[in-house]
């Protein structure tokens, strides 16, 4: 998303942050699954070595 569009949308919203829990519950569940798997992958030494390189 272009920066100008993001700024314009924030300006229309008076730069207010979204309240927690106002999003799509399916997306929230997916994000939580992704985050948990990401943390598992980071704990694997082989992956950590590849990430540093």
Overview of the molecule:
The structure is a single chain. The chain is mostly helical. The chain has a domain at 23-53. It contains three helices and no strands. The protein has helices at 3-12, 25-43, 45-52. The longest helix has 19 residues, at 25-43. The chain is elongated.
Outline the fold blueprint:
Blueprint: H1 3-12, H2 25-43, H3 45-52
How much helicity do the residues have? 55-70%
> For the report, how would you describe the main beta sheet?
none
First-residue to last-residue Cα separation: 30 Å
Oligomer: single chain
Mean pLDDT: 76
How many separate helices? 3
What structural category characterises the helix and strand content? mainly alpha
Radius of gyration: 17 Å
Rough shape? Answer: elongated
List the secondary-structure elements in sequence, H or E. HHH
* Total count of strands: 0
Low-confidence stretches: none
Strand content: under 5%
